[in-house]
Protein backbone atom coordinates (compact mmCIF):
# COMPACT_ATOMS: atom_id res chain seq x y z
CA UNK A 1 0.00 0.00 0.00
CA UNK A 2 1.47 3.42 -0.97
CA UNK A 3 2.58 5.70 1.85
CA UNK A 4 0.22 8.51 2.84
CA UNK A 5 1.42 11.79 1.35
CA UNK A 6 0.89 14.96 3.37
CA UNK A 7 1.36 18.69 2.85
CA UNK A 8 3.26 20.13 5.79
CA UNK A 9 3.01 23.78 4.80
CA UNK A 10 1.97 26.01 1.90
CA UNK A 11 2.84 29.72 1.77
CA UNK A 12 3.01 32.54 -0.74
CA UNK A 13 4.31 36.06 -1.00
CA UNK A 14 2.15 39.10 -1.51
CA UNK A 15 0.84 39.31 -5.07
CA UNK A 16 1.44 42.44 -7.11
CA UNK A 17 -0.45 43.15 -10.28
CA UNK A 18 1.83 44.78 -12.82
CA UNK A 19 1.50 46.79 -15.96
CA UNK A 20 4.12 46.87 -18.71
CA UNK A 21 7.66 47.60 -17.43
CA UNK A 22 9.36 50.85 -18.33
CA UNK A 23 11.72 50.58 -21.33
CA UNK A 24 15.19 49.56 -20.21
CA UNK A 25 14.13 48.59 -16.69
CA UNK A 26 15.70 45.42 -15.23
CA UNK A 27 13.52 42.33 -14.79
CA UNK A 28 12.23 41.46 -11.32
CA UNK A 29 14.68 39.44 -9.22
CA UNK A 30 12.84 36.13 -9.50
CA UNK A 31 15.68 34.05 -8.07
CA UNK A 32 15.66 36.14 -4.90
CA UNK A 33 11.87 35.97 -4.78
CA UNK A 34 11.97 32.17 -5.00
CA UNK A 35 14.63 32.06 -2.28
CA UNK A 36 12.52 34.26 -0.01
CA UNK A 37 9.37 32.16 -0.34
CA UNK A 38 11.28 28.91 0.22
CA UNK A 39 13.01 30.41 3.26
CA UNK A 40 9.64 31.53 4.61
CA UNK A 41 8.20 28.07 3.97
CA UNK A 42 10.93 26.28 5.91
CA UNK A 43 10.77 28.81 8.74
CA UNK A 44 6.99 28.44 8.99
CA UNK A 45 7.29 24.62 8.93
CA UNK A 46 10.16 24.70 11.49
CA UNK A 47 12.39 22.43 9.42
CA UNK A 48 16.05 22.85 8.44
CA UNK A 49 16.95 23.03 4.75
CA UNK A 50 19.40 20.14 5.17
CA UNK A 51 16.44 17.74 5.36
CA UNK A 52 15.26 18.68 1.86
CA UNK A 53 16.04 15.91 -0.64
CA UNK A 54 14.08 17.03 -3.71
CA UNK A 55 13.37 20.48 -5.14
CA UNK A 56 10.68 20.83 -7.80
CA UNK A 57 10.48 24.19 -9.54
CA UNK A 58 7.51 25.29 -11.62
CA UNK A 59 9.05 27.40 -14.38
CA UNK A 60 7.87 29.40 -17.38
CA UNK A 61 9.41 30.33 -20.69
CA UNK A 62 9.64 33.97 -19.66
CA UNK A 63 11.49 33.25 -16.37
CA UNK A 64 14.79 32.08 -17.83
CA UNK A 65 16.57 34.63 -15.62
CA UNK A 66 15.67 32.65 -12.47
CA UNK A 67 16.75 29.17 -13.52
CA UNK A 68 19.30 28.87 -10.71
CA UNK A 69 18.04 27.36 -7.48
CA UNK A 70 18.09 29.33 -4.21
CA UNK A 71 21.47 29.16 -2.47
CA UNK A 72 20.15 27.06 0.43
CA UNK A 73 18.61 24.51 -1.97
CA UNK A 74 21.44 23.94 -4.44
CA UNK A 75 22.13 20.31 -5.43
CA UNK A 76 24.34 18.45 -3.03
CA UNK A 77 24.63 14.80 -2.05
CA UNK A 78 21.38 13.08 -3.01
CA UNK A 79 19.38 16.30 -3.44
CA UNK A 80 17.66 16.56 -6.81
CA UNK A 81 16.29 19.59 -8.65
CA UNK A 82 13.47 18.97 -11.13
CA UNK A 83 11.88 21.65 -13.32
CA UNK A 84 8.36 21.32 -14.70
CA UNK A 85 5.93 23.72 -16.38
CA UNK A 86 2.73 22.81 -14.54
CA UNK A 87 1.69 23.12 -10.90
CA UNK A 88 -0.45 19.98 -11.01
CA UNK A 89 2.38 18.00 -12.62
CA UNK A 90 4.76 19.27 -9.93
CA UNK A 91 2.51 17.99 -7.13
CA UNK A 92 2.06 14.67 -8.94
CA UNK A 93 5.82 14.35 -9.34
CA UNK A 94 6.37 15.07 -5.65
CA UNK A 95 3.74 12.49 -4.72
CA UNK A 96 5.49 9.88 -6.85
CA UNK A 97 8.89 10.71 -5.36
CA UNK A 98 7.86 10.44 -1.72
CA UNK A 99 5.87 7.26 -2.31
CA UNK A 100 8.83 5.58 -4.02
CA UNK A 101 11.26 6.75 -1.35
CA UNK A 102 9.48 7.48 1.95
CA UNK A 103 12.54 9.33 3.29
CA UNK A 104 12.06 12.01 0.61
CA UNK A 105 11.27 15.57 1.70
CA UNK A 106 10.18 17.65 -1.29
CA UNK A 107 9.84 21.39 -1.77
CA UNK A 108 7.72 22.69 -4.65
CA UNK A 109 8.12 26.33 -5.59
CA UNK A 110 6.76 28.53 -8.34
CA UNK A 111 7.33 32.16 -9.29
CA UNK A 112 5.83 34.52 -11.81
CA UNK A 113 7.40 37.71 -13.09
CA UNK A 114 4.01 39.23 -13.75
CA UNK A 115 3.72 41.30 -16.88
CA UNK A 116 4.11 39.37 -20.13
CA UNK A 117 3.85 35.82 -18.76
CA UNK A 118 0.08 35.48 -18.62
CA UNK A 119 -0.42 37.64 -21.70
CA UNK A 120 1.76 35.24 -23.64
CA UNK A 121 -0.29 32.32 -22.35
CA UNK A 122 -3.52 34.01 -23.42
CA UNK A 123 -2.02 34.57 -26.86
CA UNK A 124 -1.08 30.89 -27.11
CA UNK A 125 -4.62 29.85 -26.23
CA UNK A 126 -6.16 32.24 -28.73
CA UNK A 127 -3.91 30.91 -31.47
CA UNK A 128 -4.66 27.29 -30.61
CA UNK A 129 -8.41 27.58 -30.12
CA UNK A 130 -10.58 30.09 -32.00
CA UNK A 131 -12.01 32.75 -29.73
CA UNK A 132 -15.43 31.77 -31.06
CA UNK A 133 -15.19 28.64 -28.85
CA UNK A 134 -15.43 30.82 -25.75
CA UNK A 135 -18.62 32.36 -27.05
CA UNK A 136 -20.05 28.97 -28.02
CA UNK A 137 -19.27 27.55 -24.58
CA UNK A 138 -20.93 30.54 -22.89
CA UNK A 139 -24.02 30.12 -25.05
CA UNK A 140 -24.15 26.40 -24.31
CA UNK A 141 -24.35 27.04 -20.57
CA UNK A 142 -26.56 30.10 -20.92
CA UNK A 143 -23.85 32.46 -19.66
CA UNK A 144 -24.42 36.08 -20.64
CA UNK A 145 -21.93 38.95 -20.70
CA UNK A 146 -23.68 40.43 -17.67
CA UNK A 147 -23.23 37.11 -15.83
CA UNK A 148 -19.51 37.24 -16.56
CA UNK A 149 -19.05 40.78 -15.31
CA UNK A 150 -21.17 40.14 -12.21
CA UNK A 151 -19.05 37.11 -11.36
CA UNK A 152 -15.78 38.97 -11.97
CA UNK A 153 -16.75 41.91 -9.78
CA UNK A 154 -17.96 39.53 -7.05
CA UNK A 155 -14.58 37.79 -7.17
CA UNK A 156 -12.87 41.12 -6.50
CA UNK A 157 -15.32 41.94 -3.71
CA UNK A 158 -14.86 38.56 -1.98
CA UNK A 159 -11.09 38.87 -2.09
CA UNK A 160 -11.20 42.42 -0.78
CA UNK A 161 -13.41 41.42 2.14
CA UNK A 162 -11.08 38.54 3.02
CA UNK A 163 -8.01 40.79 2.81
CA UNK A 164 -9.61 43.37 5.11
CA UNK A 165 -10.50 40.70 7.68
CA UNK A 166 -7.00 39.18 7.64
CA UNK A 167 -7.97 35.83 6.12
CA UNK A 168 -4.82 35.72 3.97
CA UNK A 169 -2.32 36.30 6.77
CA UNK A 170 -1.89 32.57 7.54
CA UNK A 171 -0.80 31.75 3.99
CA UNK A 172 1.33 34.85 3.40
CA UNK A 173 4.93 35.21 4.50
CA UNK A 174 5.96 38.57 5.93
CA UNK A 175 8.72 39.51 3.46
CA UNK A 176 8.15 42.71 1.53
CA UNK A 177 8.70 41.87 -2.14
CA UNK A 178 8.78 45.46 -3.42
CA UNK A 179 12.63 45.66 -3.39
CA UNK A 180 12.78 42.54 -5.58
CA UNK A 181 10.64 44.04 -8.33
CA UNK A 182 13.30 46.42 -9.62
CA UNK A 183 12.23 49.56 -11.42
CA UNK A 184 9.59 47.55 -13.30
CA UNK A 185 7.53 47.00 -10.16
CA UNK A 186 4.59 49.26 -10.83
CA UNK A 187 1.58 48.11 -8.87
CA UNK A 188 -1.81 48.21 -10.56
CA UNK A 189 -4.21 50.34 -8.54
CA UNK A 190 -1.41 51.61 -6.24
CA UNK A 191 -3.50 50.60 -3.24
CA UNK A 192 -1.66 48.54 -0.63
CA UNK A 193 -2.06 48.65 3.09
CA UNK A 194 0.07 47.57 5.99
CA UNK A 195 -1.04 44.68 8.15
CA UNK A 196 -0.97 45.19 11.90
CA UNK A 197 -0.57 41.46 12.46
CA UNK A 198 2.52 40.49 10.47
CA UNK A 199 5.33 42.98 10.65
CA UNK A 200 6.35 44.31 7.26
CA UNK A 201 3.77 42.37 5.28
CA UNK A 202 1.69 43.97 2.56
CA UNK A 203 -1.72 42.94 1.35
CA UNK A 204 -2.76 44.03 -2.08
CA UNK A 205 -6.28 45.32 -2.32
CA UNK A 206 -7.66 43.55 -5.40
CA UNK A 207 -8.04 45.71 -8.49
CA UNK A 208 -10.63 45.26 -11.23
CA UNK A 209 -9.60 43.08 -14.13
CA UNK A 210 -8.88 44.39 -17.59
CA UNK A 211 -10.97 43.73 -20.69
CA UNK A 212 -9.85 41.54 -23.53
CA UNK A 213 -10.28 44.59 -25.73
CA UNK A 214 -6.72 45.48 -24.67
CA UNK A 215 -5.56 42.60 -26.88
CA UNK A 216 -5.90 43.12 -30.60
CA UNK A 217 -6.14 39.36 -31.16
CA UNK A 218 -9.24 39.07 -28.93
CA UNK A 219 -11.57 41.24 -30.96
CA UNK A 220 -14.42 38.66 -31.20
CA UNK A 221 -15.03 38.97 -27.43
CA UNK A 222 -14.05 42.51 -26.59
CA UNK A 223 -16.04 42.84 -23.37
CA UNK A 224 -15.13 39.59 -21.61
CA UNK A 225 -13.40 40.12 -18.24
CA UNK A 226 -9.84 38.82 -18.07
CA UNK A 227 -7.35 38.74 -15.17
CA UNK A 228 -4.31 40.94 -14.82
CA UNK A 229 -0.88 39.33 -14.54
CA UNK A 230 0.54 38.96 -11.04
CA UNK A 231 4.09 38.94 -9.71
CA UNK A 232 4.76 36.69 -6.72
CA UNK A 233 5.89 33.29 -5.50
CA UNK A 234 4.45 30.27 -3.71
CA UNK A 235 5.98 27.16 -2.11
CA UNK A 236 4.82 23.82 -0.65
CA UNK A 237 6.50 21.25 1.59
CA UNK A 238 5.51 17.62 0.94
CA UNK A 239 6.53 14.30 2.52
CA UNK A 240 5.01 11.08 3.85
CA UNK A 241 3.10 11.04 7.13
CA UNK A 242 5.72 8.69 8.58
CA UNK A 243 8.54 11.05 7.65
CA UNK A 244 6.63 13.93 9.22
CA UNK A 245 6.40 11.98 12.47
CA UNK A 246 10.15 11.30 12.36
CA UNK A 247 10.92 15.00 11.90
CA UNK A 248 8.36 16.12 14.47
CA UNK A 249 6.40 18.33 12.07
CA UNK A 250 2.63 18.47 11.78
CA UNK A 251 0.91 18.25 8.38
CA UNK A 252 -1.86 20.64 7.43
CA UNK A 253 -3.44 18.48 4.73
CA UNK A 254 -3.40 15.01 3.21
CA UNK A 255 -2.95 14.64 -0.53
CA UNK A 256 -5.84 12.34 -1.45
CA UNK A 257 -5.13 12.19 -5.17
CA UNK A 258 -3.73 14.04 -8.16
CA UNK A 259 -4.33 13.40 -11.83
CA UNK A 260 -2.94 14.80 -15.06
CA UNK A 261 -4.70 13.32 -18.11
CA UNK A 262 -2.56 11.54 -20.66
CA UNK A 263 -4.35 13.47 -23.40
CA UNK A 264 -5.51 17.01 -22.71
CA UNK A 265 -9.15 17.71 -23.54
CA UNK A 266 -9.89 20.42 -26.08
CA UNK A 267 -10.73 23.74 -24.42
CA UNK A 268 -13.72 23.93 -26.76
CA UNK A 269 -15.13 20.73 -25.20
CA UNK A 270 -15.31 21.37 -21.43
CA UNK A 271 -17.87 18.58 -20.98
CA UNK A 272 -15.07 16.06 -21.39
CA UNK A 273 -13.15 17.80 -18.61
CA UNK A 274 -16.16 17.68 -16.28
CA UNK A 275 -16.54 13.97 -16.99
CA UNK A 276 -12.90 13.41 -16.02
CA UNK A 277 -13.45 15.33 -12.75
CA UNK A 278 -16.39 13.09 -11.86
CA UNK A 279 -14.36 9.99 -12.75
CA UNK A 280 -11.46 11.29 -10.65
CA UNK A 281 -13.71 11.82 -7.63
CA UNK A 282 -15.30 8.39 -8.13
CA UNK A 283 -11.86 6.76 -8.18
CA UNK A 284 -11.23 8.36 -4.77
CA UNK A 285 -14.65 7.20 -3.48
CA UNK A 286 -16.06 10.72 -3.34
CA UNK A 287 -18.81 12.69 -5.04
CA UNK A 288 -19.15 16.38 -5.81
CA UNK A 289 -21.40 16.99 -2.81
CA UNK A 290 -18.59 15.86 -0.47
CA UNK A 291 -16.28 18.67 -1.62
CA UNK A 292 -16.28 21.70 0.68
CA UNK A 293 -14.05 24.00 -1.38
CA UNK A 294 -13.42 24.26 -5.13
CA UNK A 295 -10.60 26.25 -6.71
CA UNK A 296 -11.12 26.44 -10.47
CA UNK A 297 -9.49 28.50 -13.24
CA UNK A 298 -10.31 32.18 -13.54
CA UNK A 299 -8.55 32.88 -16.83
CA UNK A 300 -11.94 34.39 -17.60
CA UNK A 301 -15.34 34.40 -15.92
CA UNK A 302 -16.78 31.72 -18.22
CA UNK A 303 -14.86 28.84 -16.60
CA UNK A 304 -16.08 29.25 -12.99
CA UNK A 305 -19.62 29.97 -14.20
CA UNK A 306 -19.55 26.69 -16.15
CA UNK A 307 -18.56 24.87 -12.97
CA UNK A 308 -21.41 26.47 -11.04
CA UNK A 309 -23.94 25.43 -13.66
CA UNK A 310 -22.53 21.97 -14.36
CA UNK A 311 -22.15 20.78 -10.76
CA UNK A 312 -24.76 22.94 -9.06
CA UNK A 313 -22.40 23.90 -6.24
CA UNK A 314 -22.88 26.93 -4.04
CA UNK A 315 -21.04 30.05 -5.23
CA UNK A 316 -19.76 30.37 -1.65
CA UNK A 317 -17.82 27.10 -2.12
CA UNK A 318 -16.23 27.91 -5.48
CA UNK A 319 -13.24 30.27 -5.28
CA UNK A 320 -14.82 31.63 -2.08
CA UNK A 321 -11.92 33.98 -1.33
CA UNK A 322 -11.63 35.30 -4.86
CA UNK A 323 -9.48 34.09 -7.71
CA UNK A 324 -7.26 35.30 -10.51
CA UNK A 325 -9.82 37.90 -11.57
CA UNK A 326 -9.14 39.58 -8.23
CA UNK A 327 -5.47 38.84 -7.49
CA UNK A 328 -4.07 38.47 -10.98
CA UNK A 329 -2.93 35.26 -12.61
CA UNK A 330 0.29 33.87 -11.13
CA UNK A 331 1.44 32.22 -14.34
CA UNK A 332 2.25 28.51 -14.13
CA UNK A 333 2.22 28.74 -10.31
CA UNK A 334 -1.46 29.76 -10.15
CA UNK A 335 -2.68 26.34 -9.00
CA UNK A 336 -0.10 26.31 -6.19
CA UNK A 337 -1.47 29.68 -5.07
CA UNK A 338 -4.98 28.20 -5.15
CA UNK A 339 -3.81 25.27 -3.03
CA UNK A 340 -2.23 27.52 -0.40
CA UNK A 341 -5.41 29.60 -0.17
CA UNK A 342 -7.64 26.53 -0.05
CA UNK A 343 -5.77 24.83 2.80
CA UNK A 344 -6.13 27.95 4.95
CA UNK A 345 -9.79 28.40 4.04
CA UNK A 346 -10.66 24.77 4.86
CA UNK A 347 -8.97 25.16 8.24
CA UNK A 348 -10.87 28.38 8.97
CA UNK A 349 -14.28 27.02 7.92
CA UNK A 350 -13.96 23.47 9.26
CA UNK A 351 -14.22 21.93 5.79
CA UNK A 352 -12.78 18.53 4.97
CA UNK A 353 -12.16 18.09 1.24
CA UNK A 354 -10.90 20.59 -1.31
CA UNK A 355 -10.38 20.28 -5.05
CA UNK A 356 -8.11 22.29 -7.35
CA UNK A 357 -8.65 22.06 -11.11
CA UNK A 358 -6.55 23.35 -13.99
CA UNK A 359 -7.46 23.64 -17.65
CA UNK A 360 -4.08 24.78 -18.96
CA UNK A 361 -3.01 23.38 -22.32
CA UNK A 362 0.47 22.65 -20.94
CA UNK A 363 -0.70 21.08 -17.70
CA UNK A 364 -4.40 20.30 -17.20
CA UNK A 365 -5.27 18.24 -14.17
CA UNK A 366 -7.06 17.89 -10.85
CA UNK A 367 -5.86 17.44 -7.29
CA UNK A 368 -7.77 16.61 -4.14
CA UNK A 369 -6.79 17.21 -0.53
CA UNK A 370 -8.23 16.54 2.91
CA UNK A 371 -7.66 19.20 5.54
CA UNK A 372 -6.22 17.87 8.81
CA UNK A 373 -7.84 19.81 11.63
CA UNK A 374 -5.77 18.35 14.46
CA UNK A 375 -2.92 20.80 13.76
Task: Describe the protein.
This protein has one domain: Peroxisomal Thiolase, Chain A, domain 1 (3-Layer(aba) Sandwich). Strand 6 (192-194) and strand 7 (202-204) form a beta hairpin. The chain is 33% helix and 20% strand. Strands 1, 2, 3, 4, 5, 10, 11, 12, 13 and 14 form a ten-stranded mixed β-sheet that branches. A two-stranded antiparallel sheet has the order 6-7. Strands 8-9 form a two-stranded antiparallel ribbon. It has helices spanning 30-45, 87-100, 117-128, 132-140, 145-164, 241-247, 270-283, 302-311, 324-327, 334-349; strands at residues 5-12, 16-17, 54-58, 80-84, 106-113, 192-194, 202-204, 210-211, 225-226, 230-240, 253-259, 291-295, 353-358, 365-371. The model is unreliable at 62-67, 117-130, 182-208 and 210-222 (pLDDT under 50). InterPro entries: Thiolase, Thiolase-like, Thiolase_C. It is an enzyme of class 2 (transferase).
Sheet of most strands: 10 strands, mixed
Question: How many domain modules?
Answer: 1
Unreliable residue stretches: 62-67, 117-130, 182-208, 210-222
The helical percent reads 25-40%
Give the overall pLDDT as a whole number: 78
Measured distance between first and last alpha carbons? 25 Å
> Percent of residues in beta strands?
15-25%
Structural class: alpha+beta
Could you outline the blueprint of secondary structure elements for this entry?
Layout: E1 5-12, E2 16-17, H1 30-45, E3 54-58, E4 80-84, H2 87-100, E5 106-113, H3 117-128, H4 132-140, H5 145-164, E6 192-194, E7 202-204, E8 210-211, E9 225-226, E10 230-240, H6 241-247, E11 253-259, H7 270-283, E12 291-295, H8 302-311, H9 324-327, H10 334-349, E13 353-358, E14 365-371
Amino acid sequence: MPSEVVIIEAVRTSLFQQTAPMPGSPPPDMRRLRAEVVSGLLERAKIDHSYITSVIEVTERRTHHCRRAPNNLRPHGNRRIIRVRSSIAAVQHAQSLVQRKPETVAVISGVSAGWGTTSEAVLDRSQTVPQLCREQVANRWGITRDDQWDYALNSVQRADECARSGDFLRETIGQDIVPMLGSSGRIAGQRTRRSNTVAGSRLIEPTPMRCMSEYSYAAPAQDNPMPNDACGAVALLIMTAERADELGVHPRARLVGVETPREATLPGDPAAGFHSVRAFLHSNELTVDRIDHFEVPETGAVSPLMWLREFGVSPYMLNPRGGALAFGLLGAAEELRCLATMITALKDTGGAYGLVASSRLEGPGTLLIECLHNV
